[in-house]
Amino acid sequence: MLKKVTQIALCIIMLVCAVLVDVTVGEIDQDFPEGYSYAINVNVSSSSSPKRQLIENIDEWARESRITPVLVKPDTTDVIHVKNLYYFGQKPKRCASGDCPVSWYRRGMKGRYLPASEIKALNLSGTYLFHDSNQCFSFSRFLRGQGVTIEENMQKNDHLLAYMWRSHSTIPFLAVAALLFIVSLVWAFLAEKMPSVRIKTQSGLGKAEIAAQSVYEFLRYSSLQLLLLLLLSCLILSILHKFYLFGFVIKYLLIFFLGLLLLPAFFISISTVVIFPSTHQIAIREGAPRASLVGSIVIKVLSTIVVVSVFPTALANFGVARQQLGSVSRWRQISHAVNLQIDPSEKTEDSYARKLVRVAYRMEGKRQAALSYSAANSIAQNSRGTIDAGLMAPYDSIAVMNPTFLTSLHIQEKSLCKVQPSMIDPALAGKIRQYDDLWLAKGSTKSMTDMLYSPCQGSHASIPVLLATGGVGTFSLVHKPLIILVKDLKALNPDQFLYPAMTTGNLFFTQPDGVEEALHQENAQQAVYAINSIVDDAVLASQIMEYEVYLDFILVITACMAIILCAAISSRLWMIRKRRWIFVRHTSGEPYLSIISSYLLQAVFIIAGSLTLSQLLFAHEWQAVSHPVLTVVMILLAFIGLECGFAFFHARQAFAAMIHRE
Asked: At what angle do helices 2-31 and 207-240 cross, to 10 degrees?
């Protein structure tokens, strides 16, 4: 039984490794397509040059220096499956023959090399790719001369594990779960071999010979199935993905394949020498207590604490990532949305500000002006300059929105419930009222406390809230915000709120054609030097979140496999120690449930203690769990169910072994 459980667990983990390699290679390909090795992330909003002028300057510099910077951007016609590379200067050599498609690892992805003149409404901020570091350095120096901010320099890392470790916070938890799985796998194998090892030891075999035989047996029954799964994974990935980068995929599949064979084999050889009792210990009956001590304490306590600590964290992360993906999928519905990049060099700013505000009014009349502003930093800030979460409770954010923003993300207004001022903290209500004179239009008879709404009870959808700072389209995701719902933009102060919201991208427009028409009607074209798509950062966030979902899914699976092995091991060790006692009790007519009740009580005690300790050690992670009590109960019941099932099986096996004198 334990041997079969071990084999199944190995197969599942091999498949999990294949998924991990696949999604990570796809992630690397998204960052460094077409064999590029260096990249820089830039923010052009700090530059005073108009967008068209900046494109011309970069293009001219690229032709003179014979360097071809390439900007990666999603296509607004299909932001998920089409990503183009826009080149400055000379056409890349591989595109000399004409139309030049881009090769992506994911089969559903496509794109083309396009000249920079085709950028149009896309934002110049983003990732620029190069083949060597000197080109990257020269371009960075040129951009600084143009007033552009260089946010990050990146170099392609061909070491997949190093890339994962540096890129994502989930990886340390995944490493803990993987180590735990390897240890549990070794202990499962040793627990299965313990009776035969005792016989071999009494027959005179040395520990080195027993260790060699154990390693050989593990490799013999594990290597064939893992090899078949390796070939199957390669076949499936070759069907689902393009051949591009496939050699890289096979390389790391082989590394994981060898790791799943050699690491357990190494630990088995060491553990056999260190743990198994000698002939003298067997003669004085020290072997069984020692096996029980090692199995019960090391496996039942240490492993359970680590698994139970990792599992809720992974579960919480998985739930958060799932909510984030749901919000991003709604954000993708407005892939054509744009914001206005205001010309900071315009000296008649006041007159143009009024014109731009009238543009917003025109767009609102067409229901094409969307407002979202995260106001928690302003309203709920404490004396230390941080957000006072206690003041906002039970809400996790404060946001100013209008109905157009909600409907553009497919969030129905009827899903929001009215919040009366008496229902929130009086201190918070007072802080909100302090902003009435600043944010509301002069002469307004209403207070912002009369505009308060929140998602109705039972609503589980997270809502994206645009931040007041950061990249264009950067948002935070909140589950229960306190929303100041402004149904008419004219109710807001045009100078103190609306115009600043346009400059930061918190007021954006869902149709670019309508914006150009409104700018022409208000004669405000000179105040705007760029109309930019805001979907770029949302797509990048989506890409990161999708990868996080995969990692959390892999983490949960790995932890679950360790839990199953842990339950199987402990009951197996218990059977070895108690089989004579089981035989006597069951022969006298006592049912198996009564026999294993003491074992199950011990298991419940250990699990409860582990849960308590994990909550103390990982209190922050437990706060992220939506329903901590329910999660604890579910983990407890699942673990008891596993323990009960394995205990029943091994108790029956112990009774049968005594009958047949095995």
From this structure: 50
**Closest-CA residue to 641 (of 591, 594, 607):** 607
pLDDT confidence band for 377 (50 / 70 / 90): confident
Neighbours of 408 (CB within 10 A): 20
Look at residues 123, 113, 106 and name the one whose alpha carbon lies nearest to residue 23: 106
Distance CA 448, CA 179 (A): 53
C-beta contacts of 117-122 below 8 A and 24+ residues apart: 117/55, 118/86, 119/55, 119/71, 119/73, 119/86, 121/76, 121/338, 121/512, 121/531, 121/532, 121/533, 122/73, 122/76, 122/86, 122/532, 122/533, 122/536
**Tens of pLDDT, residues 192-232:** 666 666 666 666 677 777 778 888 888 887 888 888 888 88
pLDDT tens, position by position, 538-559: 666 667 667 777 777 777 777 7
User: Which two tokens mark 200?
Assistant: 């071999």
User: Distance between CA atoms of 492 and 121, rounded to whole angstroms?
Assistant: 28
**DSSP-assigned letter for residue 294:** I
Angle ∠(643,648,651) on CA atoms, nearest 5? 115
Contact criterion met (CB below 8 Å) for 325 and 499: no
Give every CB contact of residue 593 below 8 A, 6+ residues apart in sequence.
none
Cβ-based neighbours of 520, under 8 Å, separated by 6 or more? none
Residue 128 bridge partners (DSSP):
40, 71
For the chain, the straight-line distance linking the first and the last C-alpha, in angstroms and rounded, comes to 16
Compute the average pLDDT of residues 127-136: 90
Q: Which of 441, 542, 471, 415 is CA-nearest to residue 123?
A: 471
Give which of 256, 257, 269, 259 is closest to 215, Cα–Cα.
269
Tokens of 515: 């914006």
Domain boundaries, the chain: 2-26+165-316+542-659, 35-155, 338-533
Rounded to whole angstroms, what are the CA distances from 70 to 55, 62, 127, 171, 538? Answer: 12, 10, 8, 31, 20
Strands annotated E in 456-598? 463-466, 475-478, 481-485, 507-509, 528-533
Over the Cα atoms of the chain, what is R_g? 31
- Cα atoms in the 13 Å half-sphere on the side-chain side of 317: 26
Query: Number of C-alpha atoms within 13 angstroms, CB side, residue 653?
Result: 17
Judge whether 464 and 327 are in contact, CB under 8 Å: yes
Element (H, E) at 86: strand 78-87
Cβ atoms within 10 Å, residue 95: 19
Task: Tell me the C-alpha to C-alpha distance, in Å, between residue 9 and each of 2, 155, 418, 560.
Answer: 10, 36, 51, 10
- CA nearest to 277, candidates 293, 288, 264: 288
